[in-house]
Amino acid sequence: MKRLKPEGLKVLVVGGGGREHALVWKIKQSPRVAQVFCAPGNAGIAEIAECVSIEAGDVSGLLEFAWKNQIDLTVVGPELPLSKGIVDTFEAHDLLIFGPSQGAAEIEGSKAFAKNLMQKYNIPTAAYGVFTEVEPALAFIDQLAATKTDGGCPCVVKADGLAAGKGVIVAADVEEAKEAVRSMLSGNSFGAAGSRVVIEEFLEGEEVSILAFSDGIHIVPMVSAQDHKRIFDHDQGPNTGGMGAYSPAPVYTEELAPIVEEKVLRPTIAAMEAEGRPYVGVLYAGLMVGAQGVKVLEYNARFGDPETQPVLMRLETDLVDIIQACLEKRLDEQPIRWSEEATVCVVQAAAGYPGDYEKGQVIHGLSPVLPGVAIFHAGTALRDGQIVTQGGRVLGITAKSRNIRSAIELVYSQCAQTGFEGVQYRRDIGRRALEREQR
C-alpha cells in the first residue's frame, strides 16, 4: 500500500464550510505539511490555504486536480462526495484519501440501511419502520401513537437519504407526523431523499455526539460533544444543520463511555466489516442517553458540523499522524492526546435561516480575536475586498477555556464583537452543561 511521506506533504481538503475550515486549521499545524489546498473553500479558509474553485461533489474535477498537483493526501469533509464514491475513485488511481468508501458511507446515505444494520447486529436504537407508500406509513404512526399513555410526541419522521441535516421532523402530535409523511412521500418536500421514509419511536433523554477514528478494524472515540440542532433558544423552532456545540458533554460520563464503546462503536465497525463494507475514516454516532439507556439516533460518515470545531480545538496530537495510522490500519498503536480544557462553538447564521436567507451582508469584527478564540468561516465569500455572508450558517465562533462556564463567557464576548446585519445565533449553547453543574 502507498504510504505517506514523512514531510513536505501537499494536502487537499474537500468542502467549504466551518468543518473544513477547522480541518484546514488543524492540518496546517502539522510540521509534516508543506501546503494545503481546499476545494472549494471559503473566505476564511483562503487566508490560511489555497482555495480551488471545484465543488465538493465534482469527483472527476477533484481527481484531476489531485493527480495533476501530486496531492499526497486528500481529506473529505462533507457527505456528498463520500456518497458519490470519491474514496473508491481516488484509491483506484493510487491516491491516498481519508474517508469511508461509497459502500461504507451508506451508513449515512441511507437511514433505512443504518437502521436495518443496527437491528441485524443488535446495536441499540429506537423501534422503527421503513416506508415508500403513504397509507402503510400512516397506519404505523397510529400503531406507535397507541403505545403512548402520556399523550406525548408519538414519533420522528426522517427522509431516508441525504438532506443536509434537515430531513428530520420531530412530530408534536399524530397529525404533524402524518403531514410530514405526506409531504415527503407525496409532496416531494425533500426530493429523492424523501422518496423513502423512516418512522421511529420518539426517545426521551439528552443527546450526545461521539465522533471516532476508525481504521476498519480498530475504533478510537474522540472527546464527547453536544450539538444544538434547533434554530432558537431552548430547542425551539425547526431543525438546522447545527447552531452550536460544546465539548465535553457532561452527560457522557466516565461510566457511560466504555458502554458506548462496547455496545455501539466496536459492534458498528465489526458489522460493517461483516457486511463487506470495511469502515475507514471518521464515524459519527448521534446518541440519546435516557432512562432506556443509550440508543443510536443516527450515524454520519464523516466529521460532524459544528462538532468538529470544538472537538478539533481540543486535539493535541498531530491530525495527519492519526489519519496515517487509520490508513495503515494501526490505529491501535497511535497515541491520541486531548486538552483537558472545554470548548464551545456558537454558529452565527443569516436572517431567515434555515429557510430562505439573505446573502451579501458585510461581516464586521473578524479581528481582533480574543485570546482563546478561533473564528471558523462557514458560508462566507470575498467581494470587493470585503468578507460577506454567502450561506445560511456563516461563522462558527469557537472558544477554549478552563471549563464550560468560562468558555461560554468567552465565546459570547466574541459574538458581541462579531456579526453582520440580521445575524441570528442562540444564546444558550452549553445550557445543559451548566444545568448539570448547578444540580
Automatic annotation (TrEMBL):
Superkingdom of the source species: Bacteria
Domain ATP-grasp, chain residue ranges per copy: 115-328
Keyword field: ATP-binding, Ligase, Manganese, Metal-binding, Nucleotide-binding, Purine biosynthesis
Pathway it works in: Purine metabolism; IMP biosynthesis via de novo pathway; N(1)-(5-phospho-D-ribosyl)glycinamide from 5-phospho-alpha-D-ribose 1-diphosphate: step 2/2
Keyword Hydrolase annotated: no
Keyword Ligase in record: yes
Residues making up the signal peptide according to the UniProt record: none
GO biological process: 'de novo' IMP biosynthetic process; purine nucleobase biosynthetic process
This enzyme's EC code(s): 6.3.4.13
PROSITE patterns noted in UniProt: ATP_GRASP, GARS
Required cofactor(s): Mg(2+); Mn(2+)
Chemical reaction(s) catalysed: 5-phospho-beta-D-ribosylamine + glycine + ATP = N(1)-(5-phospho-beta-D-ribosyl)glycinamide + ADP + phosphate + H(+)
GO MF annotation, one: ATP binding
SUPFAM superfamilies: Glutathione synthetase ATP-binding domain-like (SSF56059), PreATP-grasp domain (SSF52440), Rudiment single hybrid motif (SSF51246)
Similarity comment: family membership: Belongs to the GARS family.
Record NCBIfam families: purD (TIGR00877)
Stated name of the protein: Phosphoribosylamine--glycine ligase
Species this chain originates from: Heliophilum fasciatum
Classification of source organism: Bacteria, Bacillati, Bacillota, Clostridia, Eubacteriales
Gene name of the record: purD
